[in-house]
């Protein structure tokens, strides 16, 4: 298990590069697959696949990078409002950390070598997406953007969209690149 | 220790964590105050690792195993905190983009000073001084995307200079730059040397510039120091250098072989520059016979396979990248496109593959107007290899990489297998078929990028700066491959800054400047008048310049040709 | 006009000269006020007020057109949600749905009010960011006593975003040149294509992470010891007064709302 994170140069590099990478991906995801009727949402949140994987490889700094990227990207289209920061921005910080915690607790291997690792990956993504969906739409509710009946609709669509995006984009990244990334001194698994 | 010794390396061994091989092996080195030390060696020799070790970044910020010691002004880098070592030393890396960590030129230059905790007034004074030294005054408020590669690299130097280091290390500072950028950097180094008496350690593949300025050159290969001598002594060992993977200056190599042919001692003082070579030539009793050559440029009788008719291209932000370009490319040509960054070279070739469509005018490729053809359609005919191979490798194995396009095009599996096997064999990548591309070395990735395009069997292959960041061996390997493809009938278009390779491989040269083609002709004729064109620091190779000076009607392209041209007067 | 970072507009007016801390407080001010206030009249009047500030700050209103499409999406989402999914009692019932919700005059007014909330946040934030440079963001964060490392990381993220945008286009073009039609096919098919795009981008990212650590070490990035700052922003007495005002007004608004029902939606609270 990695020691308590200290925000040093390496951590800055991980966070900044993750954010820098996910930002254009987030911008294009919103443009390419907006969801009519659901604010600031994309039917396929491509960057999630990236920052989830970055979080599994490099720890909470990957999640922080995802958070920065989402906040900036969503704000770029929808305005830099408190609402946008609280829903997508914070949601996309919490979700990958949830997945990381589950991975650590169940001692799965990000290289996805065994069926057990795959199972943990899928379950952690689903739980994380659900948590994120709940968070985002509760924030929507608090800001009066949606009403209660749409809370469930939003949570469900968010859960499905994010889960699919993360599994489709993230799984090949973990499977193919973890061996390469392991060489990096920033990799948190020993 | 000699009090004038500012850098000392004693028995240095270094191995990266997880690596089985030692990257540096028993390196011993001393650098005196005010000295200009050049470091040369083939790719993978350990040059960058040595630079990191000299600054203390190894071992402080990099995990691995170290033996031996490195001293900077008497301070052991392993035993002193990194920030103490970095007070006296600055380092500039190869990539101009990654070094620019803030969002404005002035912010970039003051950033290290803020980290040192200097007062505001001192920061301002040093920053403006540093910008003046590198010739970037007036650019303080510019954003990085408004600067060229050379300008960014100058800012990187200024950023280090502002710290007032006593030693400046530059790791391949001109690799990613165009001729303008390269010239600018060496001018700055000259200024630092002459006016500020700075100790410089410069890693370079561009030995011709290094030979002019360095006091001493260190030859590194496979982690070991093979030689440490003054440039003239080292570069005179031509055969040894070439065997090691380092090409000496052309004029040096020419005289070396000339002397050897005449049975003279090859250890005689050999020239390093065209000026010295001319002086030496004038003392020899030789005549120069113009080589008999065919004009292999345009074949006016055949139909062009690519043509540009008064093409203009304007980018969405209003930049006019191409202005009234007329061009015909004929089958079987080997064309080099040269020019400074921003001259329109890449824009021109992007029109050939259909990524860009002209704002005005027309581009036809194999008879088809590019505005009416899809990019995928054109891709079958015109292949494009990017400057950075990492931008075009997106599969999980080398095999899949070559098969990717063929699968997209719906070719039958058997044909795909046949083509891929053939192309991997040809490029020496067959043993890596199951390997992920990102595990390959840069040279291998470059070859793989060519392979992915070759598998599509295009008639035209466009290669964008294939030699950037490569050593001469790798550069020649790519160019030899392109030559063999050209011999088979493929039309080759290469964008490059390496004038030596242009002279030795291309048959036709296009010179671009500010969106226009300002010269178009055989390589011989264009190189002969290149300096007259006064275009952005483009100069012919050393050997060409030497012979043009001897006889302006004689345009020589390579050392071999020069040797054939020279006749002894009885 | 020169290309700038982010939403910044190169101009000169008093708003530009505000201390970075005040810019951040102003950003928070607009958002908090929008969140607290529910009265449609106050919200929409506030929006008009902000638009006047645009003019005073010499920022073209056309800057807001950028958000027009997505503002429309938000508006549509809000209206959709309230029309189909709320039970707000009103004077006139326009329609009752089989599942029990209904549309009244108050439904539409409330939805309009929520749109106003979002629009106030949007125009207020856009105004502030149009006068905020990257330096202001960093110095603003620092002046909130948030560690410099975080502020620098955000700045670095902006910087690297421009590099990765360039990489994205190059990789995408390379894929197109090898026969990939990225814009064709359903969501899942397009997702699969993006997987191929993700690999080189990720490899570039991981390589750059290590190089970046060397660069930051070389530049002596100092996170523990004392560091100085090149720019100086002074918060005079006027600035302090403004800061206190920006903090006090939302508190006051909330107090008045909770205690006296001011700034609420007419008829609030209601069942449903």
Describe the structure.
The complex is a heterotrimer of chains A (190), B (570) and C (272). With 190 residues, chain A is mostly helical. Chain A has helices spanning 9-32, 46-58, 60-78, 82-105, 115-142, 148-181. The model of chain B has no long low-confidence stretch (mean pLDDT 90). Chain C is mainly alpha-helical and 272 residues long. A two-stranded antiparallel ribbon of chain C has the order 1-2. Chain C is 64% helix and 3% strand. Chains in contact: A-B, A-C, B-C. The interface between A and C is large, with 67 and 73 residues.
Q: What's the story with the biggest beta sheet of chain A?
A: none
Largest interface: A-C, 67 and 73 residues
Q: Which sequence of strands runs across the widest sheet of chain C?
A: 1-2
Series of secondary-structure elements of chain C, N-terminal to C-terminal? HHHEEHHHHH
User: What separation lies between the terminal Cα atoms of chain A?
Assistant: 8 Å
Q: Could you give the distance between the termini of chain C? A: 51 Å
Unreliable stretches of chain A (pLDDT < 50, length at least 5) are: 1-5
Give the strand content of chain A: under 5%
Determine the fraction of residues in helical runs of chain C and give it as a percent range: 55-70%
Percent of residues in helices of chain A: over 70%
* Spatial extent as radius of gyration of chain A: 16 Å
The helix-and-strand class of chain C reads: mainly alpha
How many domains of chain C? The number is 2
Largest sheet of chain C: 2 strands, antiparallel
Estimate the mean pLDDT confidence of chain C.
86
Domains counted in the coordinates of chain A: how many? Answer: 1
């Amino acid at each position: 298990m990695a020691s308590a994170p200290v925000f040093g140069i390496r951590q800055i590099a991980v966070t900044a590069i993750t954010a820098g990478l996910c930002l254009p991906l987030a911008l294009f995801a919103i443009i390419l697959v907006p969801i009519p009727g659901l604010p600031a949402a994309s039917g396929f949140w491509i960057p999630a696949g990236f920052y989830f994987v970055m979080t599994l490889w490099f720890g909470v700094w990957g999640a922080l990078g995802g958070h920065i990227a989402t906040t900036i990207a969503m704000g770029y289209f929808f305005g830099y409002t408190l609402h946008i920061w609280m829903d997508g921005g914070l949601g996309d910080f919490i979700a990958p950390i949830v997945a990381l915690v589950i991975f650590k607790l169940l001692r799965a291997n990000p290289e996805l070598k065994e069926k057990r690792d795959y199972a943990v990956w899928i379950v952690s993504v689903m739980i994380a997406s659900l948590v994120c969906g709940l968070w985002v739409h509760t924030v929507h509710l608090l800001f009066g953007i949606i009403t209660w009946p749409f809370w469930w609709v939003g949570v469900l669509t968010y859960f499905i969209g994010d889960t699919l995006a993360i599994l489709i984009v993230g799984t090949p990244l973990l499977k193919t690149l973890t061996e390469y990334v392991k060489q990096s001194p920033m990799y948190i698994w020993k | 220790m000699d009090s004038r010794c500012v850098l000392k390396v004693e028995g240095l061994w270094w191995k990266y964590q997880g690596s089985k091989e030692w990257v540096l092996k028993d390196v011993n080195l001393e650098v005196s105050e005010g000295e200009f030390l050049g470091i040369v060696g083939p790719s993978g020799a350990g040059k960058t690792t040595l630079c990191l070790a000299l600054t203390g970044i190894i071992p402080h910020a990099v995990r691995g195993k170290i033996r031996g010691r490195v001293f900077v002004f008497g301070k052991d880098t392993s035993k002193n905190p990194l920030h103490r070592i970095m007070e006296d030393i600055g380092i500039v890396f190869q990539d101009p983009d990654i070094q620019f960590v803030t969002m404005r030129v002035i912010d970039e230059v003051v950033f290290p000073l803020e980290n040192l905790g200097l007062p505001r007034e001192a920061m301002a004074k040093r920053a403006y001084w540093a910008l003046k030294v590198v010739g970037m005054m007036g650019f303080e408020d510019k954003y990085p995307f408004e600067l060229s590669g050379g300008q960014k690299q100058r800012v990187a130097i200024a950023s280090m200079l502002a710290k007032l280091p006593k030693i400046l290390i530059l790791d391949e500072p001109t690799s990613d730059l165009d001729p303008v950028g390269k010239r600018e950097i060496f001018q700055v180094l000259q200024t630092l040397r002459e006016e500020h008496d700075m100790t410089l350690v410069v890693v370079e593949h561009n030995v011709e510039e290094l030979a002019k300025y360095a006091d001493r050159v260190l030859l590194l290969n496979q982690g070991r120091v093979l030689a440490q001598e003054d440039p003239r002594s080292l570069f005179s060992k031509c055969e040894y250098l070439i065997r090691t993977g380092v090409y000496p200056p052309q004029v040096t190599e020419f005289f070396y072989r000339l002397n050897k042919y005449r049975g003279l001692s090859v250890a005689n003082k050999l020239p390093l520059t065209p000026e010295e070579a001319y002086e030496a030539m004038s003392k020899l009793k030789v005549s120069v016979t113009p080589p008999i050559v065919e004009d292999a440029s345009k074949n006016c009788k055949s139909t062009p396979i690519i043509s540009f008719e008064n093409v203009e291209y304007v980018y969405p932000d209003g930049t006019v990248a191409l202005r009234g370009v007329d061009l015909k490319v004929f089958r079987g040509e080997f064309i080099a496109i040269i020019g400074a960054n921003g001259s329109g070279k890449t824009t021109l070739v992007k029109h050939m593959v259909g990524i860009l469509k002209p704002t005005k005018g027309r581009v036809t490729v194999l008879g088809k107007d590019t505005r009416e053809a899809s990019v995928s359609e054109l891709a079958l005919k015109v292949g494009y290899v990017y400057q950075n191979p990492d931008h075009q490798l997106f599969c999980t194995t080398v095999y899949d990489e070559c098969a990717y396009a063929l699968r997209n095009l719906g070719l039958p599996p058997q044909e795909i297998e046949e083509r891929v096997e053939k192309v991997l064999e040809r490029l020496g990548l067959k043993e890596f078929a199951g390997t992920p591309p990102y595990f390959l070395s840069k040279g291998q990735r470059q070859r793989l990028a060519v392979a992915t395009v070759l598998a599509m069997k295009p008639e035209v292959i466009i290669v964008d700066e294939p030699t950037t960041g490569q050593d001469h061996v790798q550069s020649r390997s790519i160019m030899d491959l392109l030559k063999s493809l050209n011999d088979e009938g493929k039309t080759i278009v290469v964008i490059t800054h390496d004038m030596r390779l242009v002279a030795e491989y291309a048959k036709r040269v296009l010179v671009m400047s500010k969106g226009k083609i300002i010269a178009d002709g055989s390589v011989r004729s264009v190189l002969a008048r290149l300096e007259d064109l006064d275009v952005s620091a483009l100069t012919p190779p050393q050997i060409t310049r030497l012979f043009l000076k001897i006889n302006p009607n004689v345009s020589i392209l390579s050392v071999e040709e020069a040797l054939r041209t020279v006749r002894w007067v009885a | 006009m020169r290309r700038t970072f982010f939403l910044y507009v190169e101009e000169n007016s008093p708003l530009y000269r505000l201390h970075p801390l005040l810019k951040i407080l102003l950003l928070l001010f607009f958002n908090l006020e929008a969140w607290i206030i529910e009265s449609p009249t106050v919200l929409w009047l506030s929006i008009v007020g902000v638009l006047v500030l645009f003019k005073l700050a010499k920022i073209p209103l056309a800057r807001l057109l950028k958000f027009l499409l997505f503002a429309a999406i938000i508006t549509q989402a809000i209206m959709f949600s309230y029309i189909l999914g709320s039970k707000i009692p009103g004077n006139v019932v326009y329609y009752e749905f089989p599942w029990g919700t209904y549309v009244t005059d108050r439904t539409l007014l409330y939805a309009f009010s929520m749109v106003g909330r979002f629009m106030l946040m949007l125009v207020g934030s856009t105004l502030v960011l149009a006068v905020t440079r990257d330096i202001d963001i960093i110095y603003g964060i620092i002046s909130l006593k948030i560690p410099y490392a975080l502020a620098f990381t955000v700045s670095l993220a902006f910087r690297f975003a421009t590099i990765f945008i360039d990489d994205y286009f190059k990789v995408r073009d390379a894929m197109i040149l090898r026969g990939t039609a990225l814009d064709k096919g359903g969501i899942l098919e397009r997702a699969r294509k993006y997987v191929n795009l993700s690999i080189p981008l990720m490899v570039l990212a991981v390589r750059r992470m290590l190089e970046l650590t060397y660069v930051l070490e070389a530049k002596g990035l100092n996170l523990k010891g004392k560091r100085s700052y090149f720019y100086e922003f002074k918060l005079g007495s006027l600035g302090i007064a403004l800061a206190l005002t920006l903090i006090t007004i939302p508190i006051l608004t909330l107090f008045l709302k909770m205690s006296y029902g001011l700034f609420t939606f007419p008829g609030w609270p209601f069942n449903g």
